[in-house]
Amino acid sequence: MGTVLWEPPVDVRQTSRIGDYLAWLARERGLSFAGYPALWDWSVTDLGGFWSSIWDYFGVVAHDPPTAVLGDTMMPGTRWFPGATLNYAENVLRMPGIGDDEPVVLAYSQSREPITLTARQLREQVRRVRAGLKARGVGKGDRVAAYAPNIPETYVLMLATASLGAIFSSCAPEFGSRSVIDRWSQIEPKVLVAVDGYKYGDKAVDRRAEVAAITAALPSLEHVITIPYLGIEGDFSDLSGEDALTFEPVPFDHPLYVLYSSGTTGLPKPIVHGHGGILLEHLKILALHHDLGPSDRFFWFTTTGWMMWNYLASGPAVGAAIVLFDGNPGWPSLDALWDLIDTAGITYFGTSAPFLMACRKAGLTPRKRLKGLGSTGAPLPVEGFAWVYEAVGTDLQLLSLSGGTDVCTGFVGGAPLLPVRAGMISGRSLGARVEAFDPSGKPVVGELGELVISAPMPSMPVGFWNDPDGSRYREAYFDVFPGVWRHGDWITIAEDGSCVITGRSDATLNRGGVRLGTSEFYSVVESLPEIADSLVVHLDAADDPNGELLLFVVPAEGVEVDDALRARIARELRGSLSPRHVPDAIFSVRAVPRTLSAKKLEVPVKRILTGTPIESAAATGALANPESLTAFAELAEVRRSTPG
Prior knowledge:
Blueprint: E1 4-6, H1 12-15, H2 17-29, H3 36-45, H4 47-57, E2 62-64, E3 85-86, H5 88-92, E4 103-109, E5 115-118, H6 119-135, E6 143-147, H7 152-163, E7 167-171, H8 177-187, E8 191-195, E9 197-200, E10 203-206, H9 208-217, E11 223-227, E12 250-251, E13 255-260, E14 270-274, H10 275-289, E15 297-300, H11 307-313, E16 321-326, H12 336-344, E17 348-352, H13 353-361, E18 372-376, H14 382-392, E19 397-400, E20 402-404, E21 409-413, E22 420-421, E23 427-428, E24 434-437, E25 448-453, E26 463-464, H15 471-477, E27 485-493, E28 499-504, E29 509-511, E30 514-516, H16 518-525, E31 531-541, E32 544-555, H17 563-576, E33 585-588, H18 602-609, H19 614-617, H20 630-641
Parallel strand pairs: 4-16, 6-7, 6-8, 8-11, 15-16, 15-17, 17-18, 18-19, 32-33
Antiparallel strand pairs: 1-22, 2-3, 3-12, 4-5, 9-10, 13-14, 14-26, 20-21, 21-23, 24-25, 25-27, 27-28, 29-30, 31-32
Helix pairs in contact: 3-4, 6-7, 8-9, 13-14
């Protein structure tokens, strides 16, 4: 078990939202729980009791009440809250605890001056844009696409689209046109709203050519509307009208938005999320796990191409104002986002583990008063936990969470009732029956296993777009353990429910039958000051049960990867992990390939190294740096042409 870095205060049940929820359960349901483990156990055992309590505790606004909580618990195909009709946007725009003239959206950008919207202004902007969409023929079930960054217009457009019962989908404008077309040709949008360009740091990026290419490739488009974000051209202000703000009542599982798998190989999976499932899940996790409410300003560094944008967007549903940021988080220095805490009055700061590790490596000591700090996107190593408590603050709750686009939430994370231990995810989220399975499908405790979810969650996808028989959906999650969701990560769950995720199970490093997680490699290698980034892959070898372990490192500026550095890396891996972790070869590369949401691409690299052409191994439009793949293709060619 890791070192305890933070413990819940003694009055946590009196001061936290989860404490208030526990008091409500005792008062209204006659249910009492000694602590978080007992509460979690109930939440994944009595699914009907738990999720109906979330509905009632948060006072979900519905037009028709449900006839039940769920029909049965079979996966896939669970029907939640049959008979209910509601609207996600209506529940978000209630903004409980936020006065009409209080700020609810605070937007900061490297492309223009800051913008603040009060609750009244946000509702009025949603009303206007909704009226404009309706005037252009957008109605229930139509798709509205946004090629736009994390700015108020995108947020308003999403809520306006949802209010009509139409379906929203966004791509960040740094996505290349091919990547966008791969996504939107599947859902055939009627309306496209796009920016003319954006600034990244001090660099202006014109996107008009990409918008033209996207438009030409989508014959379903009837209207293209431009936000003049770079000030070049635009008619977004014409998206307006006089209609009152009303909300289309839709069934619980009516599509709200379509998110996409990262699409690093093949076409991205179009994951359809429903109004009710997203609403209930986000009410639960934002209030009870992150402890967000009317006194908070909630920030997560994200683009509109990552599910954390959708997560952030639900903040006002629990009464929290949200802070939007668009631009380069490292410009003019890594202090930029930390400075935003003071500028915007942020109380909850969310980011990625790689960003925190970069700040640690740069020697930053931001020292901020925060209630909470969230970390996701990759496992946060022990050193990252330690840095947060040494350099940022000792009183904040660090919540390391993991989940996915597939459920649009974190299914393991933390809660105000749980301590924070270095290198550990504090627990499993309420309502998420996460287990570790061995290869035979049996749960294991204290051992590495496949991360599975063995009971349904309301925010599991409604399905995939254009998958009428559900075969693609079943194949994606239910092909290994029938009736159980397999997520594709390795996890170790301790007796107390705390856990460690050690990397993707499809990127497994299997040395002589021993499975090694990638995250522990990166923690050791990237702690060396000479190394800026790294990637490790394992290749099978017919004549060697250990296979071949290859490590690729990006040296820090001015550093050469020579034999002395290779020997030092090997010593560190042997001493910190084991002899099995010492790579067979260490190569210097200029960059590690990453998705636009900063995830490393072990599997495409593995495919390239085993002879798959780049264009078949990876969808380059989904990468932040597609040119980085060339070095691996060249190495594959050298290895093929070298005897032995």
